[in-house]
Amino acid sequence: MASDTGKTVALEPDHISTYCLTYEEDTEFFLRHARGEFRQDSDSDLEFFQATMSILEAAGYEHYEISNYARPGFQSAHNRAYWSGADYLGIGPSAFSTIGMKRWQNVPDFRRYAAAVLSGESTVASVEHLTPEMKRGERIALALRTNDGAPAKLLESFPNETREFVRLGLLQRANGKFVLTRAGKALADSVAEAFV
Description:
Blueprint (H helix, E strand, L loop, with lengths): L1 H9 L4 E3 L10 H7 L7 H17 L3 E4 L2 E3 L6 H7 L12 E4 L2 E5 L3 H10 L4 E6 L2 H13 L5 E2 L7 H9 L3 E4 L2 E4 L1 H4 L2 H6 L3
Antiparallel strand pairs: 1-3, 2-3, 4-5, 5-6, 7-9, 8-9
């Protein structure tokens, strides 16, 4: 893994996204995982996450979101808007869009999607109407994934949780925001879940 990360750094990209493999239904990886050909190992995933973080930061990349690194000035504007709760429009099969309090997903099958576009029909497969509580929870969870963190005001209704995460060394308060510590980044989803 370290050599692959080193090879990536040697290519000198301005932006790098890193993700652990997830086994999605209806994929060959999922079927092979179900047959026992592949196995998940959270300890190895953690080691890979920490090694990747160290290698990329040492190479001058800013870890600006749990899965994203960039050279100064090359953070993804689209992703930053998404993580800050801005409206966004998704184009293409399976794409999600969120405008105001409404979220929808396009049909996932590319043939059905193309047929709908060509015939002037709706490409929307499902619609979700968001509540203020849902938006607030998402805003907290997404903000915590970034190096900007979540405004302390958003977490005011969770004093016990924030205090406990600070005590555990997973969160720290800085400049009116709560941000994940290095140890907290490895547990970002678990921390965010407490606020949703």
